Amino acid sequence: PRFVATDFLQFDAKQQEYDGIIFCSSLHDLPEMKFSLEKASMLLRENGKIVIVHAQGGMHVLGQHKANPVLVQRGLPSEDELTEWAGEMSLILDFFETKSEENYLAVLQKSSDN
Prior knowledge:
Blueprint: E1 18-24, H1 33-43, E2 44-54, H2 57-67, H3 79-88, E3 91-97, E4 104-110
Parallel strand pairs: 1-2
Antiparallel strand pairs: 2-4, 3-4
């Protein structure tokens, strides 16, 4: 097993595939969320998972966006957005949950049809 903690935008996987990629309170800080998820999907092996989690939730991220839209360009993706993006990336939205906007958890899985 291998665990890599790195600057995702600078990361060069060198043809390696991963079982899972976790964005923990970080996806909203990346300049292009959809591009970052596309990159992550290319790094996954078949049935691999992308986990997007934010303990403070979507409302917190929207507050950050309102306070500093240059740094936080948008809120976290909605369930509908993730479903649409997943279809474009050969992923499926396996799980999505937000409770009282105090947390955010989404799991995307790479389709075995690739």
